[in-house]
Design a protein that fits this description.
Two copies of one chain form a homodimer. Chain A has 15 helices and nine strands. The model of chain A has no long low-confidence stretch (mean pLDDT about 95). In chain A, helix 11 crosses helix 15. The first copy, chain A, has about 400 residues and is an alpha/beta fold. Chain A has a six-stranded parallel sheet with strand order 2-9-6-5-3-4, sandwiched between helices. At the A-B interface, strand 1, strand 2, helix 8 and helix 9 of A face strand 1, strand 2, helix 8 and helix 9 of B. Strand 1 of chain A pairs antiparallel with strand 2 of chain B. Chains A, B: Keywords: Oxidoreductase. Chains A, B: Pfam families: ADH_Fe_C (PF25137), Fe-ADH (PF00465). Chains A, B: GO terms for molecular function: alcohol dehydrogenase (NADP+) activity; butanol dehydrogenase (NAD+) activity; metal ion binding; methylglyoxal reductase (NADPH) (acetol producing) activity.
Chain lengths: ~400, ~400
């Protein structure tokens, strides 16, 4: 197990009706609120009205930034910063999924930066300070509600990059599983794929001694496998929605990564797809994951695939190791397919045309090598893209 | 899954050499330190000298309270409060195991209370405020390094009770597994039993929908099973010591209990043993646990024992449910025995004489019923004590 510093300061209020804490929690951190959200879904489920009534009851002035995109764009960040500055905002309340929360985090950071917010995303300038943020989650997927990271897209330059700072941890997050009852089958499936991918990015590591962390990761994976299909078939199954929601937070808040050294692989590969084609993030991850696994599997890392196959997929441990590994990859692919996820790039509108361009762009960003479980070079990335077609 | 509020604010610095953060961390919270510790073990391993040199290098004035007992007594709390008041202490640094940390937490709380600190322990008065606390852990067992609770003993009245307050979360804890290299085989085994018991107290619950939490709990149990014996046989095995240390924190910091409603059972039963006989806490837990399991197992809760047997002990799921359950209890008992723990009360010097007195004292404290997985009445408690003889 490697050394680590544990720090997860976000307070989580979990369960049906927990919005009751909203007014009191906001007042702990701020007095003038920027309310951020995406499309109209929070209005459809009555959440918008509820939030507004709480803000009004508590005499908290608020301003709105709506229409934040599924892959949130730097233009929304710029607009949010403008509203904050013009109205002396001191707290951001993000109501939505990971995109709204990510965008809000970068607004909070860019508020304290005079230049173009994109500088912060690409690392040209450093985040110094961040406005306090609270969230009300409506989609179980990115885990942004309990971590210190954000991903922003620049469609002009076809770039989608991550940014992180300890100030970006939400001060609080309200996780009410009933807010995810109306999430579509497709988005539910995509969210499950996202949670699984976050977990696998940490799980597939060459560090052998973080035994406890790997068992926790397997617990999250099993939760996704058990409840993914149930949530799709029975959208108002509280138990399924609750377990997936809590899994989304624990998959990426640090818990399963502490003591390991995982450099993520599939996420950067997918970010190129989203940056060039604006596809649904979780779907891109689901398509790429089995091909990435097949590509990297070798004698050195076979042990990890065997652990994965036996502990997560209940594959008979008496089979040959390579057979277990290959079966575990098949099971992964079959599971995503069973959720109704289109499992080829072609089905989501991506052809051969830009595969080389995307692979090159990724190599430039990654400075020649992606991930560290088995580092990928240009040819590896291109090969995975091609197999995913 | 039940509603819950997640709040684990303790920062953990984990790994060999992490004491390097000590000076900086103390200065974030205080300027005059009460250094607390137990017997001489921290001097033997050189940790005392290291701490003192860091305090001196950082020009931090410090005062000492040493000799804190394995089952920390209210007299030590009283003495600690006196030192704090006389010397304007504003930060407590606990160096040791759970006893030292628990005692320090209650000193921190009693500092702000004018009456007898025992009032706070028995709930006669409420904790209002707590001095900030930091810890350096030297024993993997109680998890006090990352939770908001403490247990204090009053040998005059033969009482050992728990007390909790959110202010009791340590601000930071330094977890360096090498500090546990010299822990004796007996104390190592006792610590493992303590971690397992904390986990089982949360795991054995009638709440069925907290699936994710139960998988996490199983991960902690598997970690104890894998590394318990290794740590005893190879005291300087870093991987074993590290996994047990992190397991001790995660078993009780809330993670596996959120969303459940477990009212602990075996701990209160053991507290009576410690209060009357001052035995090693973890040993008492190990002795009682299998007898408690046998006593409560019935058709209604059989499912939970089956889950435990199959997921934790790898018992063949094709066997008859009751057979799986009984085997899981046997496995639990055999495991404790394999760690070298004496598995009868007689072996630790407890005879029949006070069993009724202890059972009566417990019922009085528990107001007639202990635990909620299967609530225990007086006859149940006495029966478990007798079977444990």
């Amino acid at each position: 197990m490697l050394n680590f510093n544990y720090n997860i300061p976000t307070r989580v209020f979990f369960g049906e009706g927990k919005i009751e804490v909203l007014g009191k929690q906001i007042k702990k951190y701020g007095s003038r609120v920027l309310l951020t959200y995406g499309g109209g879904s929070i209005k459809k489920i009555g959440l918008y009205d509820k939030v507004i009534s709480i803000l009004k009851e508590n005499n908290i002035p608020y301003f709105e930034l709506s229409g934040i995109e599924p892959n949130p764009r730097v233009e929304s960040v710029i607009e949010g910063v403008k509203i904050c500055r013009e109205n002396n905002i001191d707290f951001i309340l993000a109501v939505g999924g990971g995109s709204t929360i990510d965008c809000s985090k970068v607004i909070g950071a860019a508020y304290y930066y005079d230049g173009n917010p994109w500088d912060l995303v690409i690392g040209k300038s450093k985040v110094e300070n961040v406005l306090p943020i609270g969230t009300i989650l409506t989609l179980s997927a990115t885990g942004s509600e309990m971590d210190a990271g954000a991903v922003i897209t620049n469609l002009e330059t076809n770039q989608k990059y991550g940014i992180g700072h300890s100030g970006m941890f939400p001060k609080f997050s309200i996780l009410d599983p009933t807010y995810t009852y109306t999430v579509s089958k497709y988005q539910t499936a995509s969210g499950v794929a996202d949670i699984i991918s976050h977990t696998l990015e940490e799980y597939f590591s060459n560090v052998k001694g973080a035994y406890l962390q790997d068992r926790l990761a397997e617990g999250i994976l099993k939760t996704c496998i058990k409840y993914g299909r149930i949530a799709i078939d029975e959208p108002t199954n509280y138990e399924a929605r609750a377990n997936l929601m809590w899994a989304s937070s624990l998959a990426i808040n640090g818990l399963i990564g502490y003591g390991k050294d995982s450099a993520w692989t599939v996420h950067p590969l997918e970010h190129e797809l989203s940056a060039y084609y604006d596809i649904t993030h979780g779907v891109g991850l689901a398509i790429l994951t089995p091909h990435w696994m097949e590509h990297v599997l070798d004698q050195d890392n076979l042990w990890k695939f065997v652990e994965y196959g036996v502990n997560v997929w209940d594959i008979d441990r008496n089979l040959d190791d390579m057979e277990i590994a290959k079966k575990s990859i098949e099971k992964t692919s079959e599971f995503f397919k069973s959720l109704g996820i289109p499992m080829t790039l072609k089905e989501v509108g991506i052809g051969e045309e830009k595969l080389e361009i995307m692979a090159k762009a990724l190599m430039e960003y990654a400075e020649g090598s992606v991930g560290n479980f088995k580092p990928l070079a240009y040819e590896d990335v291109l090969s995975i893209y091609k197999k995913s077609l």
